[in-house]
Amino acid sequence: MTYCLGIKVASGLVALADTRLTSGSEVSSNKKVSVHQLENHSLFIMTSGLRSVRDKAITYFKEVLEEQDDTFNKLYKAVNAFGAQVRRVAEEDKTALHEAGLSFNLFAIVGGQLEDDEEHKLFLLYPEGNWIEVGPGSPFFIIGNSGYGKPLLYRSLRYETSMQDALKMGVLSFDSTRVSSNDVDYPVDVVMYEKDSFHIIEHRFEKDDLDHIANQWSALLKNAVQKLPVEWMTPISAKMTEQHHES
To answer: Among positive and negative, which fits the CA dihedral 132, 138, 139, 144?
Structure first.
């Protein structure tokens, strides 16, 4: 399983991808985000799915970039090209995977900005090669193990959120997933892209780098629970007291 999160706020893009790979009882680590940066062409791709499918699609797409990069003046055109490579891999491998009891399950988050984009963009690509674009109303995509990290983002993340705060929320969303699932873990790769900068920043965090953040967040949550009002519990307390008297 995978945890990849892409966030679009007004000032830029924030993305996180875990690095854990599981195959049966074997656990290893591998990078799940690819960055392409050349002059005013800045984009990244994060993927979730079978590693063999992912590696093949990314390899094919790198060849396309080498040959056709100057023809992509807007990010959606590059996303279309990547989608075409995903469909190509599906045509080559889907039947064999199905016969082996495996699904063709490659999802991808593609973000960045090309020279004719009026702003930074963020897309979710499906295994069929079609895509949707993130909007201000729900400014993030998660692929892979998505259930545990969404509540925090739904409650707190807004399009007007700063990139710094978006990164904080992203790390906490990742940590919520990590503590709830054995197949998501450190190291975690972070990608930051500031609007109109045409420069992507990458950084890898190890567990020791962020352990204190996770511990502080846990303490804050416990403290917040203790500070919640209790008046609404009065009917239940009364019933418990009544039960004790009857017994």
So the answer is: negative
